[in-house]
Amino acid sequence: MKHHSYQAMQDRYAVDRRDFLKIGGVLSAGLVLGNPLAWAQDQQKNVPPAKPKTNIEEILKIPRTPSSLPGLFPAKVVEIKNDKAMADDKPVAEVVDAMVAEGIAKLTGKNLRDSFGLFFSKDDVVGIKVNPVGAGLISTRLEVVDALVKWLTDCGLERRNIVIWDRFDYMLKDAGFTAQRYPGIAIEGLQTMDEAEGEKQDNSRWLDKDGKHVSAGSFDMDVYYWADVEGPKDNAYLNQHVFNGKYSYFGKLVTQRLTKIINVPVFKNTGNGISMATKNLGYGAICNTNRLHRPLFFDVCTEVLAFPAIRDKLVLNITDGLRAQYDGGPMPAAKFTYIFNTLFFATDAFAADTICHNIMVQKRKSMGVTVNEHPRFSDYLRYAERLGLGISDVAKIELLRG
User: Is 219 helix (H, G, I), strand (E, B) or coil?
Assistant: First the structure.
């Protein structure tokens, strides 16, 4: 091993041919978000597949810092609901601004200006990790990010010290995270990919003259999540995952440039589990992930967050439930979305996911979905508590509502 690792809504959101090719050729192929059929088959079993060996024990030996997860407010989650947050299927900016201010104040006990100093200095480079999947339907709302940008800049952080990021560059643009919307702020994907790959044999858009993925240099070869699972060697996989083999490298943006991270996932399911705070980073900060879905799917959400690149930099999680999705996830499915008008705030990503998981289970039941409540769908949260990364025992979690 290497060293040094540590109208009807369905009509309103109808897809055009370009979007169809993305969803048909990427999502349902299971390469970006995993194979839903495989998940469905596995979810019928009460015994998960044997867990492959990973490098988690090596990572756990790295000393923690005062800012390490679960952060400044372990076991504390704030839920802010405002029925006026969405109007005509669109967020109301001034209401969202007020919700963000209220949520941060309830979490920290301080106003926005004083809260800034708890998390940041004016020299920090702050990465806002969004979830752009399901652009315009179930992606992170621009208005939530707008409120965060305003908070940071009003408190003296320069716009050039803010990065809005995700793993895939094209998804950010599709979801509205553009330079036009956010002048002076970097909008960065950890990698690019050729969305049309598969329709043609020309790989020049993603392979360089040496036969390497054009995004290979964006990943840190010294910081990786190793798991004893091989990634496929075909071009379709490499186009979307940059590397195969047994190493999932962290993006250099995360390991070398960002000093603090605000995580802004969306409220949605992934089968009988959820795809929220921990998955947004667990699968968003590394490459070569599809190989991990079946044998390690939920454990990745714990183990990747144990790395210092996330553990010591993640200071705030805001789960965007303005519009939520209770079934069909993690892919966008308009018929299962609903207006929830809710934001969740926590420094403890695992406490936040515990609360949201339980809310999701009850929502799915209320909508007539047959829910498998086997512990395997939330074991990763208890695993995180054993590793000291967060709190998953509801009896220990303080939930404040506003």
Answer: strand
Hey, where are the domains in the chain?
10-192+213-401
Tell me whether residue 379 is exposed, middle or buried, using C-beta atoms within 10 angstroms of its C-beta: 0 to 12, 13 to 18, 19 or more: middle
My answer on whether omega of the bond before 265 falls inside 30° of 0, hence cis, is: no
282/286 Cα distance (integer angstroms): 7
Residue 348 tokens read as: 């403890």
Backbone angles phi, psi at 330, to 5 degrees: -85, 0
Helix (H) or strand (E) holding 379: helix 379-386
Q: What confidence score (pLDDT) does residue 46 get?
A: 59
Q: Which residues pair with 219 in a beta bridge?
A: 251
Q: What is the DSSP letter of 195?
A: T
Could you count the other beta carbons within 10 Å of the beta carbon of residue 59? 20
> How far apart are the C-alpha atoms of 45 and 36, rounded to whole Å?
15
Kindly report the length of the chain: 402
Cα distance between residue 293 and residue 299, in whole Å: 10
pLDDT recorded at residue 205: 84
Distance CA 5, CA 297 (A): 21
Name the percent of the chain in helix, strand, coil, to the closest 5: 40, 20, 40
Q: Which residue has the higher pLDDT, 388 or 14?
A: 388
What does the alpha-carbon distance between residue 236 and residue 387 come to, in Å, rounded to a whole number?
A: 36
Q: Would you call 225 helix, strand, or coil by DSSP? A: strand
DSSP 54-80: BSHHHHHTSPP-TT-TT-SSTTEEEEE
**What pLDDT was estimated at residue 202?**
76
Place of tokens 């036009």: 180
Rounded-to-integer distance, Cα 270 and Cα 36, Å: 9
CA distance 275 to 265: 8
Task: Please determine, for residue 31, whether its predicted confidence score (pLDDT) is greater than 90.
Answer: no
**Which amino acid is it at 73?**
F
Q: Is 2 exposed, middle or buried (0-12, 13-18, 19+ CB in 10 A)?
A: exposed
